[in-house]
Amino acid sequence: MAINVHNSEFDLAYRGDFETLKLKVCDHPEVLSLRDSDQRLLLHWAALGGHDIIVEYLLDKGCPVDPKDDTDMTPLILAASAGKEKVVRVLVSRGASVNARNNEGHSSLQYAASKGWGSIVQLLLQNGADANIADKLGATPLHRAASRGNTEVVKMLLAHPGKTDVSIADRYGNTPLHLACEENRAEEARLLVMNGAPLDKQNREKLTPLDLAPSVLSRQLVTLREQ
Fold first, then answer.
1. Residues 42, 9: contact at Cβ < 8 Å?
2. Quick one: DSSP state of residue 171?
3. Does residue 118 contact residue 156 with C-beta atoms inside 8 Å?
4. Do 33 and 41 meet the contact criterion of CB atoms below 8 Å apart?
5. Apex 159 CA angle, 156 and 165, nearest 5
6. Which residues, in sequence order, are CB contacts of 223 under 8 Å at separation 6+?
7. Lowest mean pLDDT among 3-12, 45-54, 98-107
């Protein structure tokens, strides 16, 4: 994610210079509602920088918890994507929408699952994040975690009491198992099969997960399903 800080107030929030920022806000309260050229507020930059104390301060000053920038990124989505657990915890506790999505349909949970931020994934799930939320291409958090080889995140999603859908297909007809097999993510593929992912489901190209898997993995999955 490109970092593009345009002026001193936003830079202070991103770097975490709390004392200087407080002086700025005291002298010029209007900076609390000031937006940069990407339509980001101070809260966006503090969240992205991982500064939970500044985030709490800005919220106490009346900043909205879920403002969107020009790509519909909220502070929570930014913090989750950047792996800033303390900020995620603060924003969630203050009512941030855990299922907000940007203009590509990506949610906080999708970013955290894709990047392997396990503690953030767990926190979001515990606070009502939709385990089956899909982006504009139909990819869910499980698609992302399985394709990236984020084993612990896959386990968390599969253990989620909301019953993560292991058979859900994206726009191309690929299930998480298709992607795991295509990327030769053996452990993830085995976990998916053990949790009921179908081996014979075809994508839009009429290919099954077994068609995409290397031969060794394909044999392992067939054996596992037969057990």
1. yes
2. T
3. yes
4. yes
5. 95
6. none
7. 3-12
